[in-house]
């Protein structure tokens, strides 16, 4: 089996938003819609303060609350774990938006552009009425993965089969791969490090693993 | 738009969604009580039956209005397996057909069937909110009871208002309404207590709930006083029922509207640990906008 | 994924050099002729230090390309009045008209001679972004070279917003125009305000991320918790502008609180001037015959010239010796049996009072914290360890001290740059693997690499191209308006020196002429490109007023902005993704940009060029042709004014100087020369090869990341700790200025100390402002600072919507950051509109409450406050620049000032 997952190394992320903007490029999302973005999280009280940068977006949960509530089955889970939205089925009821504990979903009511009413040529190229009035979110660049797989590429290793945000990361903080592959990059990373999943207590089984510390070598064995 | 780390008000479901829960819930519940009233006097089938159906329709229209893709709204029926929205949508036409059929045919049996479906519809609504796991104010188990009791109280309140005009359906009306109001108040208190517990809900959600309390207490006090007055002074009759019904209905709608539109903060974001920027320097977690950890420990 | 199924998809390789920490490689996805996506050039994995990635700014370029607010054709001003309130009345003209207009002006000016009655160039030019503009202006540098004298005094922010002291002193001490940690190897960094995660480019971010994974500990010392502070192991909030005291205390700990043997004593003895004997008047004691500095040889028990073989130089002790002392202007003292001490003893005495307890009161950092950091620095230094690099055994000292802007410019910058370099010397970690290293030369020559410029001098140090201060050679009349050659010996006289002069002096004297200084004439022609001093300079209201007095301004213009609002001619040039240019990549360059490869990358049009715009090289060629400068211009290209000389060892692709050449022909020749250089003559591929492949590199030896081997090979010493030459030069400069009755530079002269004496810099700033602008010091209890934004810094991208959108995810871009408790005490809640007032001016913006900032500090990220730039003017984001005065009293001896100003804050009601 295959279960695609992402690892975000919180030790490395600097909150630069390169992944955010690379996602916007790759997916042609309109102004204000960010399928991937990075939080700027402050904690503590002066002078004991920390600042952490946290990439977020759709967690492609194993038990996706968005999917079970969807009245039209537009939201589905692929065998490889990727959560997809069929824009032709979605009626834009917004139920999945409130069901998602990660604020990962968007719904726009009309086309909007960077500068006023007229799309730039680059916006025109990606203009898609099919994404208006329906729920949208991070796809793990599923088209890229599928196209890559067809060419025999390995998602997470070959850039042409890897999500754009991961390719773009300037801190080597984002990793993508198959969690069911014991030798895979994300499996190895998760095994060798202390990780957590956000809001794990809610039971959705999110598939972005936040890496925050290396394990001592004893722990890493097995 | 600045993306906040803290929970922020959800914007996906606005006042139109609230109308679905207020009107739809009250209407479905009114179907139930119409059937009960009609057991003694079938005339109620044509008195409040159409009102119940209209309210349910109004709720559905409101939902329809907020859909992003209205022309394919019929696809809503595709997921009866897990989606309570589909289930509600499937129940609605049955509810309407039975309710109107009961009115047209003056059939108490159909009315009872409609009442049963109304209960299911109400339950579906409550489950819908509870399954919205992105909203801490909704997903708590107490929400189920709150929506259910409030829906019932609203339906009976509507019947009480009707009683002011058409005459009482029976001596059970005011005691039953009083009982439902007390039940709703108790559930509201339990709900608030559950969400006010450390780490149970976003701070701002709790603040909104706190702000709602006075209005809700006043509405319930007014409604219950009217109920008592009606019981103590039967001569007040319709006036007491009208006052109790209005207060009970508006209290319920105030409750639901605020739960859907104002108290519904998102989950926000949290870190179980802050990262070790050098090995050994990892820090404790953080959950901005929620009760701080030290208060959780108390 | 494009939903519209394009028929033709191409990935065009090019580079991004929007910030100084590049250039980096990228590709642009072009679908059916439309540029749609910026992508990393992942084919460069293993070659580019950050595996071929580019930062967030690069992704703004698609919108920059298609921005509807672009200037669509050359424009001419019709309103002769200039000012913020005067609509320029730009009207479209043809390229012919525009170029003739400019060429005629050049011809008229050149007919009068290049210099005006004050001796200043009649033509001036300003370019932005720390030299990044050069990577976008094609052959325009060759045109400037053909033009004759050009005044580049009018700065865009350099000196007041750069690492100025680091640049100048860094080049003096270790050929380090920029200084950084050897991040791939270092294990401990003391970072004083160096916002490397925002300003270090992708190479910096990538390497520091790897280093964190590896286990580095970085301690970030700064008044507010920057992005870099957030990514550090520890944040130490320090009172603004007291970093010098912190570093003095670190020196104290190492010099007075740990056994001497834990320091790198051999390094101090053999690779620094620590043993040089200091004579009674503060200059080195010298051999009467050779004039070489003397040191005490413990082995012989005698003073000997520093380069005597087989000595054991004494670092400590008092010695009765004879020799000659050479002061300023040739003054000499003969000493017989004078008591002298090594420079190291002078250092010990100097730092004796600077205890951590002393510094605690100044810096508001607990003494034990300072002490602990000093000791951690020493522990991590691994004194005595070695490592092999390219087959050579070198000292391994994995510790570094890095400095940020505002720390390393203005008063106190000398202390910081000196103490940082000295801390490295004490542990033997200067420019060695793991240590504090330099990355580029900009003042020293030749500039091929750092090593080439290491030329031994008579005192055993690297020579330095000081601007002369001796009577025979000092320039009493400044050659350009800020007078760098006259006032700042350290700024040298390379092509970069003008940019490193005291640029605010050029603006200041336009309003208030300096006594005994030439009349501050205005330039008759001012070229402006990729810079917006009307926004980015201090006291920008006055700067704007000054530029409004310039009679003829030619702006290469992308959109309207606050500076080209004053222009007479707007020339829309082909922008980042439209122009053609070959540029050097790799080797070692700014900040963390050091590679294992070096070579060239091509910037090329990725899609159809905006029809109104023209390639910069075409514009330069046409201007040269029309102004009668063609031969000189072509000759400058042939000499290598763009990036590579067209004639070299075994190749000659020189252009016929008498003919104008097409853009493609020029760059084809340059590409061929570059191919020849990179392949040592084996290949001569031209433009087409680079269009297809993007870049070409050859290995760059890692040994060249470090200067230490060169110092050893040439038998030289780092000029540390004692600054005898600066001491002498300062006295000579004072003599020269006083001979001209110039007394207004006296405060700056006081900084020419052999060992920097800590001044109360915060007090000095407050006093200077009160003295010059009135008001009481207590009226302005807060310090206003700024911080670098990776999304914007140097990018000239403030009009790009997508950048604004994603920058908003990083706190502070749209308001004023202040401490939550300090705000609560003043009744200020998050989001409240607040007023920030300095003695000069006032601005407003929404409050952003954070815990990660000192209660006495206020922060405005970036530089905004636009009023003409489309899109940007809608952002309504406050800027500190209008609040900061340009004052001589705030100017240090290098001609720089720090980006900090005392302010008051208050909540205001109503709208901005």
CATH class descriptor name of the largest domain in chain C: Alpha Beta
**Class per helix and strand makeup of chain A:** alpha+beta
What is the CA-atom radius of gyration of chain A, in angstroms?
Answer: 18 Å
Average pLDDT, all residues of chain A: 95
CATH architecture of the largest domain in chain C, please? 3-Layer(aba) Sandwich
Uncertain segments of chain A are none
Helix content of chain C: 25-40%
| Overall residue-averaged pLDDT value of chain C | 95
Helix count of chain A equals 8
Keywords:
heterotrimer, B: 298 residues, mainly alpha, Formate dehydrogenase/DMSO reductase fold, two-stranded antiparallel ribbon, 69% helix, 3% strand, globular, C: 912 residues, alpha+beta, Rossmann fold, Dimethylsulfoxide Reductase, domain 2, Barwin-like endoglucanases, 6-stranded mixed beta barrel, 28 helices, 28% helix, 19% strand
Note down, in words, how this protein is organized.
- The complex is a heterotrimer of chains A (222), B (298) and C (912).
- Helices cover 23% and strands 23% of the residues of chain A.
- With 222 residues, chain A is of the alpha+beta class.
- In chain A, the strands form 4 sheets. Chain A has a 4-stranded mixed beta sheet. Chain A has a two-stranded antiparallel ribbon with strand order 2-3.
- Chain A starts with a strand and ends with a helix.
- Chain A is globular.
- Chain A has one domain: Alpha-Beta Plaits, CATH 3.30.70.
- Chain B is mostly helical and 298 residues long.
- Chain B has one domain: Formate dehydrogenase/DMSO reductase domain (Formate dehydrogenase/DMSO reductase fold).
- Chain B has a two-stranded antiparallel ribbon with strand order 1-2.
- Chain B starts with 14 loop residues before the first helix and ends with a helix.
- Mean pLDDT of chain B is 93; it is low at 294-298.
- Chain C is of the alpha+beta class and 912 residues long.
- Chain C has 3 domains: 68-157 and 473-512 and 524-699, 3-Layer(aba) Sandwich (Rossmann fold); 164-444 and 709-737, Dimethylsulfoxide Reductase, domain 2 (3-Layer(aba) Sandwich), CATH 3.40.228; 760-907, Beta Barrel (Barwin-like endoglucanases).
- Chain C is 28% helix and 19% strand.
- In chain C, the strands form 10 sheets. A 6-stranded mixed beta sheet of chain C has the order 5-4-23-22-21-6, with helices on one face.
- In chain C, strand 17 (386-389) and strand 18 (392-395) form a beta hairpin.
- In chain C, helix 8 (243-257) packs across helix 12 (367-381) and helix 18 (616-626) crosses helix 19.
- Chain C is globular and about 80 Å long.
- The relative contact order of chain C is 0.16.
- The model of chain C has no long low-confidence stretch (mean pLDDT 95).
- Chains A and C meet through helix 1, strand 2, strand 3, helix 4 and helix 6 of A and strand 3, helix 1, helix 6, helix 7 and helix 26 of C.
């Amino acid at each position: 089996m295959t279960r695609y997952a992402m690892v975000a190394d919180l030790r490395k992320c600097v909150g630069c938003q390169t992944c955010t903007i690379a996602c916007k490029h790759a997916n042609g999302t309109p102004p204000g819609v960010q399928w991937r973005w990075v939080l700027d999280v402050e904690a503590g009280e002066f002078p004991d303060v920390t600042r952490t940068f946290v990439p977020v977006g759709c967690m492609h949960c194993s038990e996706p609350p968005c999917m079970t509530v969807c009245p039209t089955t537009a939201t589905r889970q692929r065998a490889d774990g990727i959560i997809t939205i069929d824009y032709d089925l979605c009626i834009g009821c917004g139920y999945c938006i409130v069901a998602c504990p990660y604020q990962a979903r968007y719904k726009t009511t009309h086309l909007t552009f960077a500068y006023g009413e007229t799309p730039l040529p680059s916006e025109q190229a990606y203009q898609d009425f099919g994404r208006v009035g329906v729920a949208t979110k991070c796809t793990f660049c599923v088209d890229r993965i599928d196209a890559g797989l067809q060419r025999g590429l390995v998602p997470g290793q070959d850039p042409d089969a890897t999500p754009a945000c991961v390719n773009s990361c300037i801190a080597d903080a984002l990793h993508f791969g198959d969690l069911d592959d014991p030798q895979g990059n994300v499996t190895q990373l998760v095994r060798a490090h202390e990780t957590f999943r956000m809001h794990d207590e809610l039971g959705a089984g999110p598939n972005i693993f936040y890496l925050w510390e290396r394990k001592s070598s004893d722990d890493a064995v097995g | 738009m600045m993306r906040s780390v803290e929970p922020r008000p959800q914007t996906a479901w606005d006042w139109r969604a609230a109308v679905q829960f207020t009107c739809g819930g009250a209407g479905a519940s009114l179907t139930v009580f119409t059937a009960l009233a009609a057991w003694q006097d079938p005339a109620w089938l044509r008195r409040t039956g159409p009102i119940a159906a209209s309210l349910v329709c109004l709720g559905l229209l409101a939902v329809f209005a907020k859909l992003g893709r209205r022309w394919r709204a019929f696809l809503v029926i595709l997921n009866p397996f897990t989606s309570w929205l589909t289930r509600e949508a499937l129940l609605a036409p049955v509810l309407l057909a039975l309710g109107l059929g009961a009115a047209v045919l003056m059939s108490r049996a159909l009315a009872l069937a409609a009442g049963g479906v109304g209960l299911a519809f109400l339950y579906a609504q409550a489950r819908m909110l509870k399954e919205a796991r992105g909203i801490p104010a909704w997903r708590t188990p107490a929400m189920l009871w709150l929506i259910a009791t409030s829906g019932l109280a609203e339906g009976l309140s509507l019947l009480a208002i009707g009683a002011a005009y058409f005459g009482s359906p029976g001596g059970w009306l005011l005691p039953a309404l009083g009982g439902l109001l007390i039940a709703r108040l108790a559930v509201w208190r339990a709900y608030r207590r559950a969400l006010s517990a450390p780490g149970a809900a976003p701070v701002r959600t709790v603040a909104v709930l706190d702000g709602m309390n006075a209005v809700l207490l006043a509405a319930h006090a007014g409604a219950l006083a009217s109920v008592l007055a009606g019981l103590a002074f039967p001569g007040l009759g319709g006036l007491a029922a009208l006052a109790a019904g209005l207060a009970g209905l508006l209290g319920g709608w105030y409750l639901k509207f605020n739960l859907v539109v104002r108290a519904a903060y998102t989950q926000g974001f949290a870190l179980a640990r802050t990262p070790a920027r050098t090995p050994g320097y990892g820090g404790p977690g953080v959950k901005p906008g929620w009760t701080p950890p030290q208060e959780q420990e108390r | 994924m494009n939903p519209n199924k394009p028929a033709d998809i191409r990935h065009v390789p090019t580079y991004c050099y929007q910030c100084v920490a590049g250039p980096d490689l990228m590709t642009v996805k072009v679908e059916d002729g439309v540029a749609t996506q910026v992508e990393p050039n992942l084919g460069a994995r293993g070659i580019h230090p950050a595996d071929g990635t580019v930062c967030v700014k690069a992704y703004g370029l698609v919108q920059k390309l298609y921005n509807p607010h672009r200037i669509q054709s050359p424009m001419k001003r019709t309103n002769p009045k200039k000012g913020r309130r005067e609509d320029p009345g730009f009207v479209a003209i043809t390229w012919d008209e525009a170029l003739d207009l400019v060429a005629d002006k050049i011809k008229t000016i050149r007919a009068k001679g290049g210099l005006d009655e004050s001796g200043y160039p009649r033509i001036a030019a300003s370019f932005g972004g720390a030299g990044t503009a050069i990577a976008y202006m094609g052959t325009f540098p060759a045109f400037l070279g053909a033009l004759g004298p050009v005044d580049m005094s009018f700065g865009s922010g350099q000196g007041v917003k750069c690492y100025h002291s680091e640049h100048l002193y860094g080049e003096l001490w270790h050929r380090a125009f920029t200084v950084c940690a050897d991040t791939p190897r270092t294990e401990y960094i003391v970072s004083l305000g160096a916002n490397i995660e925002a300003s270090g480019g992708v190479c910096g971010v990538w390497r520091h991320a790897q280093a964190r994974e590896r286990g580095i500990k970085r301690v970030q010392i700064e008044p507010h918790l920057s992005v870099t502070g957030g990514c550090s192991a520890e944040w130490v909030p320090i009172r603004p502008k007291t970093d010098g005291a912190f570093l003095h205390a670190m020196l104290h700990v190492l010099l007075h609180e740990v056994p001497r043997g834990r320091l790198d004593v051999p390094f101090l003895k053999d690779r620094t001037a620590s043993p040089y004997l200091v004579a009674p008047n503060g200059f080195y004691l010298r051999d009467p015959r050779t004039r070489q500095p003397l040191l005490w040889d413990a082995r012989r028990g005698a003073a000997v010239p520093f380069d005597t073989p087989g000595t054991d130089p004494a670092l400590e002790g008092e010695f009765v010796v004879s020799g000659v002392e050479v002061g300023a202007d040739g003054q000499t003292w003969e000493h017989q049996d004078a008591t002298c001490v090594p420079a190291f003893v002078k250092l010990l005495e100097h730092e004796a009072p600077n205890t951590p307890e002393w510094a605690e009161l100044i810096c508001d950092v607990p003494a034990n914290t300072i002490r602990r950091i000093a000791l951690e620095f020493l522990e991590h230094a691994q004194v005595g360890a070695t490592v092999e690099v390219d087959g050579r055994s070198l000292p391994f000292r994995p510790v570094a001290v890095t400095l940020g802007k505002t720390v390393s410019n203005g008063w106190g910058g000398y202390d910081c740059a000196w103490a940082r370099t000295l801390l490295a010397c004490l542990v033997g970690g200067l420019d060695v693997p793991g240590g504090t290293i330099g990355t580029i030369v900009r003042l020293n020559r030749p500039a091929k690499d750092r090593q080439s410029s290491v030329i031994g001098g008579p005192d055993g140090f690297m020579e330095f191209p000081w601007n002369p201060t001796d009577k025979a050679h000092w320039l009493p009349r400044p050659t350009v308006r800020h007078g760098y050659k006259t006032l700042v010996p350290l700024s040298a006289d390379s092509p970069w020196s003008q940019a490193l002069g005291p640029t605010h002096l050029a603006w200041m004297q336009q309003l208030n002429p300096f006594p005994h200084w030439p009349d501050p004439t205005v330039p008759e022609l001012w070229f402006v490109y990729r810079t917006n001093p009307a926004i980015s300079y201090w006291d920008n209201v006055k700067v704007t007023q000054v530029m409004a007095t310039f009679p003829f301004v030619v702006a290469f213009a992308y959109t309207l902005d606050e500076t080209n609002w004053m222009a007479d001619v707007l020339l829309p040039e082909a922008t980042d993704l439209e122009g053609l240019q070959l540029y050097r990549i790799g080797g070692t360059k700014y900040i963390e940009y050091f590679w294992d490869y070096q070579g060239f990358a091509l910037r090329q049009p990725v899609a159809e060029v905006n029809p109104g715009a023209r390639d910069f090289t075409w514009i330069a060629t046409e201007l040269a042709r029309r102004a009668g400068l063609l031969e000189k211009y072509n000759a400058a290209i042939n000499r290598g004014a763009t990036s590579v000389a067209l004639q070299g060892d075994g190749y000659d692709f020189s252009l016929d100087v008498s003919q104008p050449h097409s853009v493609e022909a020029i760059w084809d020749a340059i590409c061929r020369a570059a191919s020849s250089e990179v392949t040592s003559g084996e290949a001569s591929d031209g433009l087409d090869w680079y269009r297809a492949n993007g870049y070409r590199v050859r290995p760059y030896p890692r040994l060249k990341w470090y200067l230490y081997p060169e110092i050893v090979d040439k038998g030289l010493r780092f000029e540390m700790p004692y600054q005898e030459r600066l001491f002498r030069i300062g006295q000579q400069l004072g003599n020269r200025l006083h001979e001209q009755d110039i007394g207004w530079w006296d405060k700056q002269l006081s900084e020419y100390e052999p060992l920097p004496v800590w001044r109360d810099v915060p007090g000095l700033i407050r006093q200077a402002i009160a003295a010059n602008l009135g008001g009481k010091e207590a009226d302005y209890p807060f310090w206003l600072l700024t911080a670098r934004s990776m999304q914007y810094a140097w990018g000239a991208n403030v009009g790009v919507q997508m950048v604004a959108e994603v920058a908003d995810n990083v706190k502070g871009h749209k308001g004023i950051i202040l401490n939550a408790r300090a705000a609560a005490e003043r009744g200020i809640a998050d989001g409240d509109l607040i007023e920030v007032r300095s003695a000069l001016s006032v601005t407003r913006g929404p409050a952003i409450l954070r815990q990660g900032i000192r209660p006495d500090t206020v922060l405005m990220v970036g530089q905004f406050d636009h009023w003409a730039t489309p899109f940007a003017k809608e952002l309504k984001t406050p800027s500190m620049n209008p609040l900061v005065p340009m004052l001589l009293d705030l100017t240090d001896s290098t001609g720089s000032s720090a980006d900090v100003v005392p302010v008051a804050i208050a909540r205001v009601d109503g709208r901005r």
